[in-house]
Amino acid sequence: MVRTVLSMLVRAGSEAEFERIWRAAAAEIALWPGCRGQTLLRDAAEPRQFVISSDWDDRSALRLFEGSSVRRQLSAGLDPLREKSAKNVFSVVTTVGGDVRERSTLP
């Protein structure tokens, strides 16, 4: 599995529009073969700073999406709202889950 992490600074006053357009785009991307899910994060201290993480079966599935006209079309709505962005692609080495019931017994 691979995870893309896209950090971006959204133009002042565009935060709500950015979230709205991202939600619509994410619903379309979720239908793409190999997409396992996406998350939108917003910095609590700097509300213009967002992070999008996206999980894919493998780099091949990600590359197919990245090269598609669908990706270009969906990104076109977000691009004008961003001041800057940086993207990284990571191979997921391991994931450790948690159990809330276990934590409730800790001091």
From TrEMBL:
Residues 2-90 form the ABM domain. This is ABM domain-containing protein. PROSITE patterns: ABM (PS51725). It comes from the Bacteria. It comes from Paractinoplanes ferrugineus. Pfam families: ABM.
